[in-house]
Amino acid sequence: MAIPKFIQDIRAKAGDTLLFLPGVVMVVFDGRGRVLLNQRTDTGRWALVSGIPDPGEQPAEAAVREIMEETGVSAVVERVLSVFTNEPVVYPNGDHAQYIDIVLRCRAVGGQARVNDDESLDVRWFALDELPPLGPIARGRIELALREDPTWFAPAPAPGLDPGFPVP
Coiled coil: which residue ranges (predicted)? Predict the structure, then answer.
C-alpha cells in the first residue's frame, strides 16, 4: 500500500509511534445497484475503496481522487454515512496507526472498473447478493448505504447534569 509523502515525512520524525490519521471509505454504487470493491495487495482481502486525505484536501475530494486512482471509476459523493474511529493497527514494518474514517456513499458516473494502481490485485463490481467474503464492518457500511438513516456515529455517554443548569 502506498504511503503518502506527508506521512513518510511524519514517520521520519515520529518513528513508529501511534499516529491518529483521517481516512475516507467509500461505498460506491453503479446504476445497476452493484457495489465497487477492490482486492487489496496488502491483505489479499476484498474491501471497500479507501484512502487518506492529503493535507488541506476535503474528504469528498479525497474520496473522488482515491476512487479514480485505485479503480479507474469516476464518482460523485452523495452523502456522509458514518464517522467511526477504528481500533489501532500495527503494520508489518512496526508502524502504529489509528484511523478515524469518514464513510461516504458515492455514485459512479463514468470510467471502467479496473486495477489502476499498485494497491489492488483486482477491482470489480458486485451484486449485493454475490458479495465476496467481507468483514462485519464493511458489510455494515454497505447496509447503512442502502438506508436513508441519518449519519451514524458512536454516541458519547451523557455527561453528569450540572445542578446549576436550568432544565426546561
Answer: none
